[in-house]
Amino acid sequence: RRGRWVTASPPHQARHGLSYDQAARRVPAAVEYAQAHNYRMSFVVLDAGGHLLMAGRMVGARFLTPAIARGMAYAPAVTGRSGGAMTESYLAHPALWGNAAALDYGAPLLPARGAPPVFVNGVLVGAMGASGGTAGARRGGRRAAIQALGFQRAPS
Q1: What are the tens digits of pLDDT across the range 114-143?
Q2: Burial 45-75 (b: 16+ CB within 10 A, else e)
């Protein structure tokens, strides 16, 4: 499917989701990509419960970019649906989404394109959000981070 990242990790990996060590490698890889392209961005890695594993804000990135990146990654991290699917749902049901953040004690929920869920052996393990650059910059940063761990885009 579009917007999914997969890897053939050991079975124990899928049971436990993304690790802190994996998150700690993903953010620097994304920052390295952004620096090479002269972007100033923030990156956030969430586990499948929507909990923050790692965040990084580059010097010069706007102060709200970490919160925006987290909001973009939250719904894909906990539902397994892409940010694009969340955007389409928001457009189709704005009244529902107007109350959605209150459902999880004010969860940072931003239905926006740009934060694909990550699956390991078919199990949802989290998502990574990026903010502060163009759509291409966000996509490139996430791709660099995910590929740094050996993940590959799933066949469409």
Answers
A1: 777 888 888 889 888 888 887 788 778 877
A2: bbbbebebbbbbbbeebeeebbbbbbbbbbb
Q: How far apart are CA 76 and CA 53, in angstroms?
A: 15
DSSP-assigned letters across all residues of 79-124: H---HHHHHHHHHH-HHHHHHHGGGGTS------SS--EEEETTEE
Give the position of tokens 């694909």: 116
- What pLDDT sits at residue 107? 64
Which element (helix H / strand E) includes 43? Answer: strand 42-47
Phi–psi pair at 57, nearest 5 degrees: -120, 120
For residue 29, give every residue at least 6 positions away whose Cβ sits within 8 Å of its Cβ, in sequence order, or none: 144, 145, 147, 148
Contact 126, 45 (CB under 8 A): yes
CB 56 within 8 A of CB 69: no
Q: pTM of the entire structure? A: 0.77
Question: C-alpha angle 144/71/135, rounded to 5°?
Answer: 45
